[in-house]
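debug: dumping io for the single-chain case to check the tokenizer round-trip. Nothing else runs in this session.
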Amino acid sequence: MLRGWGACLALAAGLAVPVAAEEATLTPDDVVVKTEGSHRLLLPRDWPVEHRDGRIAPVAIEEYLSMKFGQVRQKFDDTDERIDQLERRVKSLEEERSKLQQRLRALEERASTQP
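debug: decoded output
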């Protein structure tokens, strides 16, 4: 019997993989047995299923991988945006520090010229 990702890939290829009830309790957190009626599928928790020809089946692996790559792309885009925000903030802080240093120098000069 196939287990883990091997079972997922076999399911994505349209192969029937029976899953025993006791196996369902032994699956890792990222794998779940999805059931509907007498259909049981051992899939990652986020793998969508669909109804095809009157039965429940996992979406094609291409669709699932496309979804996963889209999620990763979104995380990269969010990270890029956050980096841009941080770079703008650092630049702003550096400009503020420069202004404060100039002001401090001017005040020190005025203080040194005071009797």
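debug: round-trip ok. The chain has two domains: 1-59, 62-115.
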